[in-house]
Design goal:
404 residues, alpha/beta, Rossmann fold, 2 domains, 15 helices, 17% strand
Length: 404
């Protein structure tokens, strides 16, 4: 893996007050890959899941900053961030959302020290607002797109004035490893009890409406009786809205759908599956999809955003039209009618994850962006920080364990 020879000081920022989902995983995985070689600090609200996860990691400094304060609290947070940036002597500030990006931009303009700002575009929201124009011109030196889909959108936005580089999500492929068959069977029995053979579809992408899991439930309800009775669903994430659980009950699927709640480690949930699904209405790439593939599961995805960049339809997963219940039901019939293919496709998913989804590639790509941002800031005298060979990925500190 490549790394910058000179030790860098990097400040990561994230605005979420509670569960930051993929943002949390993104930052924690980068921290794990950087902490042994560089100085890393995280600024995030004290109430956030990221604050809790980062606080428990050796070598990581954590600062409590609310990037969306109310009323006069703005002054306090501005002062806190000004002191952090002015005294921290950071080389890079890596921002991850509009709220933290905005506050970092404002504070940097008056800070005693002005680090370069790298912005990761995690979502596919429009980037043509006045705020985005200002951040692109005054507070961004390089943009990371998490997928080619996002990169194309950025090239049609104000951020086209700065370099845009695609660096896809990386995961710990040794940690997210397939279970032994007996272990998987035991976990399925724990969720659904011992009984006739069934096909278990699992998702760790979350339980919000836009994640599309209700589409899967609707499609299962429309299956022929002999297929419907053998289908099970496991969902990891925050408790769904009561209206959603009532809909599950009205479809007669209460005993076939399990909600695990929010988990820090989703491996046991993934181990219980025969296949995974991420049927989002909007999605830029998906850690959940890549974690499932690393566990040896083929993944059923919608064609929303960058999701299809993860799978090859019919080889290691399936791609269906977004929010199309009829197409989803037909694809489920196809999958359930040929259950022997699941193991073969799961093997293909595992092979792809090992070849392309590793943490070392993820960290190396991010470091290359940092290097480019630093060198662009001193064109007359390039920074003396050559890229050199670092230890193999298995020597890195343990990254983020999971996300739901």
């Amino acid at each position: 893996m490549l790394a910058v020879e000179e030790k860098l000081r990097v400040l990561f920022t994230n605005f979420h007050r509670g569960n930051g989902g993929g943002h949390d995983t993104y930052v924690i995985n980068l921290l794990a890959g950087l902490v042994q070689w560089h100085e890393v600090t995280v600024a995030t609200p004290r109430t956030s899941r990221l604050f809790r996860l980062a606080s428990g990691r050796a070598g990581v400094k954590v600062a409590a900053v609310d990037f969306a304060p109310r009323g006069l609290c703005w002054l306090r947070e501005l002062w806190t961030l000004w002191r952090l940036i002015s005294l921290g002597r950071f080389d890079i500030i890596h921002v991850n959302g509009s709220a933290d990006h905005k506050l970092v931009m404002l504070v940097r303009l008056v800070a005693l020290h002005r680090p370069r700002i790298v912005y990761t575009k995690h979502n596919d929201h429009r980037s043509n607002s006045v705020g985005n124009w200002l951040r692109a011109w005054l507070g961004t030196h390089h943009v990371i797109a998490v997928s080619d889909y996002v990169a194309r959108k950025l090239h049609a936005s104000p951020y086209r004035r700065v370099p845009v580089t695609t660096v896809s999500h990386g995961i710990d492929i040794d940690h997210f490893a397939p279970p032994a068959p007996a272990e998987a069977d035991a976990l399925r029995a724990r969720y659904f009890g011992a009984g006739e053979a069934c096909a278990v579809f699992v998702s760790t992408a979350g339980t919000k409406y836009e994640k599309g899991w209700t589409d899967l439930v609707e499609a299962v309800a429309q299956l022929p009786a002999h297929l419907r009775s053998r289908t099970r669903v496991i969902l990891a994430g925050e408790a769904p809205l009561p209206s959603m659980t009532r809909r599950v009950a009205s479809l007669g699927l209460t005993d076939q759908v399990v909600f695990t709640g929010l988990l820090d480690d989703v491996r046991s949930t993934l181990m219980a599956g025969h296949a995974a699904f991420v049927l989002s209405r909007r999605e830029t790439l998906s850690f959940a999809c890549r974690e499932a593939m690393a566990m040896g599961l083929p993944v059923l995805v919608s064609d929303a955003g960058g999701l299809p960049e993860n799978v090859t339809d019919g080889l290691d997963g399936w791609v269906v039209p977004c929010a199309n219940i009829a197409a989803l039901r037909a694809r489920l019939e196809q999958i359930l009618s040929a259950p022997d293919r699941l193991a073969e496709m799961g093997g293909a998913a595992l092979s792809k994850s090992r070849a392309h989804f590793g943490l070392d590639t993820f960290v190396a790509g991010t470091l290359a962006v940092y290097q480019a941002a630093l060198e662009a800031g001193v064109p007359s005298k390039p920074r003396q920080a050559a890229l050199t060979q670092c230890p193999a990925s298995h020597e890195l500190p343990t990254p983020c364990r999971s996300r739901s």
